[in-house]
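Researcher: Let's do a round of design. I'm pasting the structure tokens now; please hold your answer until I've finished.
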């Protein structure tokens, strides 16, 4: 628990602890949080823990929840067998205390700074009594509240996209605050030294709603959007994860939350949403934004100190803005059709059925290969991906640096004649999305759609290829937001630490980039747009994968119309595999920065090795086994960490691997824990792994595979790999055989190959040497 506390510490934690006695003024939460105090954990006697356990871990205070594919009578019998024997202890009869958050007439204000914060945030909250919706009338009001918040967030999103907006992002919510209170919250992340402008931004948009209300067109659009989400959820009731249902039952037990079930929620939505009036939605906002129970919070980097107000000035800003009259919102006309005119259709020139994968391979007249797999895992989902080799590997470093955000820049601009805001309004009552990306070695498009929106999806996919939009205003707005979001990145110890690791490993690589405000400012709109167009100019370079509830007759028409009509040439491209020029040898990095008495340790083993399915599987097994042993040894036996992470990666294109071990700990225990980690590694290299770790890996991997086989996302990725002519083919039978083939010998070989201390980096982040580091 002490290491959990240590891991939490940082700029955000320090700010929160300063805010705590103010925002929870007059309540128990102002004194401490439920996790407890360090002093008690360090000095408390064993009998105190026993007493706490006996007071609160009593069967009459507990509940059992089981959700899954099982025989309920059998599970009930197991419950009774193992839990009926536990005797209740009513003699202790310790009552759970009930804590409240008192109301406040005067606003509670907290303005805090920290040298390690990287962004300024502004929050305005108004507390209200917490009501769990358990009646029809209360659920009706919940729908009204959801509509208000969704429409206000739509307004804030749209305003954020304007070139001179003072915010990086903004939003609102209504929900649980703590204890017996809920809260209406307006929040924004500010651009540097813009806290006053952000307060004005938030209250201007709120005032616009409170003074003039929403429009009828907005209300109808958001009603349809909410109903569409309820309908989609109801269609997927049979594929809902057991964990989600279990969590819902737990919330019912702990909070008294209703468990009506999604079908009933849909039924209520269909009944109530048409009855909700514009006046009801407009009125609820006025009841939320009251003069009492206000909390105003600003947190900022110390570099923003001079631009921050005093408490009195902040309240004066808010009072002034609350009284201002604002103009009426003009709801722009919603797109009726993404493509008023359909493109000249192509055709499907060949169809092949792959019996092994139960998939269909269609070749279109423009050379595009399409792979389709019909599934019934979800009734209202079709997932999609398309990928082609190339990406930034085809650019020289100088051009790469000034176009590194090309896909995002085009995304923020919209498509054809439509802005991002136009598309957001059009999509509000629909269930589909499409996103293009450009990576180091490839370019790709991904997305998903409901069954009824598949033609909208296809039209957007077509436009992503043929009609990217270049918008100078959208470019300026986006660059301003990104630059503002990272300008103080290196206030954070972790930011400095990561940069020093990059420099140590890749200082000789001209393609290695420090992503900072200067890189963002250097982005070139024309070059980015041109590069995006070039990367998506040849549809035949991509393999298109569709998986889900597919109607083949409909898909034949849609593919002929929207995909076979894409411009293509027969020439296929490949990525250029550049040498990473990673510094070899046994490297170390030591950084002293930060106020928290904690160390961050990263041990990275890396090198060159031929990729194969076998080698990938053995590296995966090594990651699992090493993670399991280190958790037992470092966390449980030595109590040295709250968590320890092991992550491995293997690049097929570059034939390079890496295995990273990372954790935070007491700075005084670094040497002890690192030494223990290397002892574990040496044991693995000597083939001294216990059978249970390998057995657990095989069982876990097979179970995970079994679960994944019933998901559209697994098949989408699997078919994408197999559609690539350069990817070594492996069928599912071979894949399962590979999992079962893991043993002590190949785990030993993997440890010796992939945990080589002579090609490794050990990086340590320590707190800077000041008196404030005292533990």
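Researcher: That's everything. Go ahead.
Model: Designed sequence:
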């Amino acid at each position: 628990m002490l290491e959990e506390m240590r891991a939490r510490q940082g700029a955000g934690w320090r700010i929160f602890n300063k805010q705590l006695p103010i925002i929870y003024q007059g309540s128990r939460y102002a004194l401490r949080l439920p996790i407890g105090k360090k002093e008690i954990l360090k000095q408390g006697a064993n009998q105190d823990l026993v007493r706490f356990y006996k007071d609160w871990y009593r069967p009459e205070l507990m509940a059992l929840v089981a959700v899954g594919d099982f025989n309920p009578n059998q599970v009930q019998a197991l419950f009774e067998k193992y839990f009926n024997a536990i005797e209740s202890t009513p003699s202790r009869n310790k009552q759970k205390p009930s804590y409240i958050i008192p109301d406040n007439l005067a606003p509670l204000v907290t303005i805090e700074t920290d040298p390690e914060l990287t962004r300024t945030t502004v929050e305005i909250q108004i507390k209200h009594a917490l009501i769990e919706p358990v009646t029809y009338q209360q659920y009706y009001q919940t729908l009204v509240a959801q509509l208000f918040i969704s429409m206000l967030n739509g307004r804030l999103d749209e305003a954020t996209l304007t070139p001179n907006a003072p915010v990086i992002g903004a939003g609102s919510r209504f929900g649980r605050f703590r204890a017996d209170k809920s809260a209406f919250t307006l929040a924004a992340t500010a651009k540097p030294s813009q806290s006053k402008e952000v307060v004005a931004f938030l209250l201007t948009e709120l005032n616009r709603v409170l003074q003039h209300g929403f429009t009828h067109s907005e209300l109808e659009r958001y009603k349809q959007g909410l109903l569409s989400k309820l309908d989609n959820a109801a269609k997927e009731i049979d594929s809902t994860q057991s964990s989600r249902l279990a969590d819902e039952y737990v919330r019912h037990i702990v909070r008294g939350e209703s468990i009506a079930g999604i079908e009933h929620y849909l039924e209520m939505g269909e009944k109530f949403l048409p009855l909700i009036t514009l006046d009801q939605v407009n009125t609820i906002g006025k009841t939320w934004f009251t003069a009492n129970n206000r909390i105003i919070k600003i947190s900022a980097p110390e570099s923003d100190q001079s631009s921050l107000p005093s408490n009195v000035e902040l309240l004066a800003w808010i009072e002034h803005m609350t009284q201002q009259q604002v103009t009426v919102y003009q709801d722009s006309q919603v797109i009726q059709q993404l493509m008023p005119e359909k493109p000249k259709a192509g055709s499907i020139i060949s169809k092949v059925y792959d019996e092994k994968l139960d998939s269909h391979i269609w070749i279109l007249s423009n050379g595009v290969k399409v792979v389709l797999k019909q599934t019934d895992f979800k009734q209202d989902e079709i997932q999609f991906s398309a990928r082609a080799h190339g990406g930034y590997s085809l650019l020289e470093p100088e051009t790469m640096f000034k176009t590194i955000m090309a896909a995002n820049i085009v995304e923020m601009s919209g498509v054809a004649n439509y802005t991002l805001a136009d598309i957001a309004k059009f999509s509000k009552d629909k269930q589909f999305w499409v996103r293009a990306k450009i990576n180091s070695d490839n370019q790709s498009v991904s997305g998903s759609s409901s069954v009824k929106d598949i033609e909208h999806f296809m039209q957007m996919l077509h436009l992503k290829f043929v009609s990217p939009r270049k918008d100078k205003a959208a470019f300026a707005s986006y660059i301003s937001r990104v630059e503002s979001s990272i300008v103080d990145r290196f206030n954070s110890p972790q930011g400095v630490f990561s940069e020093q690791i990059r420099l140590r490993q890749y200082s000789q690589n001209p393609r290695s980039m420090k992503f900072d405000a200067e890189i963002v400012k250097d982005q070139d709109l024309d070059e980015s747009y041109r590069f995006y167009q070039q990367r998506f100019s040849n549809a035949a370079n991509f393999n298109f994968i569709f998986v889900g509830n597919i109607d083949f007759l409909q898909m034949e028409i849609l593919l002929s119309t929207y995909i076979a009509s894409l411009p293509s040439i027969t020439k296929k491209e490949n990525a250029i595999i550049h040498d990473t020029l990673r510094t070899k040898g046994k490297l170390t990095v030591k950084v002293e920065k930060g106020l928290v008495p904690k160390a961050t340790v990263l041990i990275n083993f890396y090198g060159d090795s031929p990729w194969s399915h076998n080698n990938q599987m053995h590296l995966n097994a090594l990651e699992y086994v090493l993670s399991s042993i280190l958790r037992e040894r470092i966390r449980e036996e030595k109590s040295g960490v709250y968590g320890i992470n092991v992550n491995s990666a293997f690049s097929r294109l570059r034939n390079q691997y890496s295995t990273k071990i990372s954790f935070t700990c007491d700075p005084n225990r670094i040497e002890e824990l690192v030494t223990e980690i290397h002892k574990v590694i040496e044991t693995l290299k000597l083939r001294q792994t216990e059978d249970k770790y390998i057995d657990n890996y095989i069982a876990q991997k097979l179970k995970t595979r079994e679960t994944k086989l019933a998901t559209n996302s697994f098949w989408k990725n699997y078919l994408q790999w197999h559609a690539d002519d350069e990817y070594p083919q492996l069928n599912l039978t071979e894949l399962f055989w590979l999992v079962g083939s893991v043993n002590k010998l190949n785990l030993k070989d993997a440890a010796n190959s992939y945990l080589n201390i002579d090609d490794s980096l050990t990086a340590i982040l320590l707190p800077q040497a000041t008196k404030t580091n005292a533990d």
